[in-house]
Amino acid sequence: MKVEIWSDVMCPFCYIGKRRFEDALQQSGHQDKIEIEWKSFQLNPHLKTDPSVNYIQYLADRKGWTIDYTTQMNDQIAQMASEVGLSYNSTRVVANSFNAHRLSHLAKKYNLGNEAEEALFKAHFIDAQNIDDKATLVKLGTEIGLNAEEIQQVLDSETYANEVEQDIAEAQHLGISGVPFFVMNNKYGVSGAQALPVFLETIEKSFAEWEQENSKPALTIIEGQSCTPDGDCN
To answer: What angle do CA 146, 147, 153 make, to 5 degrees?
Structure first.
């Protein structure tokens, strides 16, 4: 069964949602029969990468919040992250995610999409790395098994730019206005970093329907004269 996940590396709820979904998938026991495809989404496509900008200040300015309120909200999200084993760094880099999405598409070519997403999330939210820096992206890509020269060629060109835009256009067509967004078996959508039971219930429901749709029909056999592979004909 296929699960498509629209996500942005910059989205704190996307990493939390990833963990909750993975925990639910593990509990379902269906992980070996589920194909996960990560899809690109950009929350702020016009953002200019600037490592010198304080993240809390950037967020406050963008949302029109006070520094105190922004810090409080950031701490609340960090607490949510800690509940699924993630230690968010409040000093993370303000960076455009488009090149990170292109790296993810390259990784998808080699069935390493999930590994790429995990590496990018960790780099941004925990290690406070610049996920728009080419050297950083080459390092992250090679650590999950991609070829450094191919990564550099992709980043130095427009390769996979169309694929990123197509994912975003598809999200708009489906009416997806925020991430994370999970589409299971092309039938059920789960919006946001839902609680584990919500993910588990939807996985179970969609998987049961998928299994029924793809089960081989039982044949009622009327026996008659025939030949078998060992040469017996009767």
So the answer is: 115
Q: Given the structure tokens 């004269």, which residue do they identify?
A: 225
Backbone angles phi, psi at 73, to 5 degrees: -65, -40
Residue 207 half-sphere exposure toward CB, CA atoms < 13 A: 17
Domain assignment of residue 192, given as a range: 2-214
Residue 220 forms part of a structural domain: no
Q: Which amino acid, residue 79?
A: Q
Please tell me the total count of domains within the chain.
1
DSSP state of 10: T
At 44-70, the pLDDT tens digits run 999 999 999 999 999 999 999 999 999
For residue 234, being part of any structural domain is answered with no
Of residues 69, 13, 79, 16, the one with CA closest to residue 43: 13
Tens of pLDDT, residues 3-34 = 999 999 999 999 999 999 999 999 999 999 99
Which amino acid appears at position 200 of this protein?
A: L
pTM score: 0.89
Q: Token pair for residue 116?
A: 């790429």
CATH code of the domain covering residue 164: 3.40.30.10
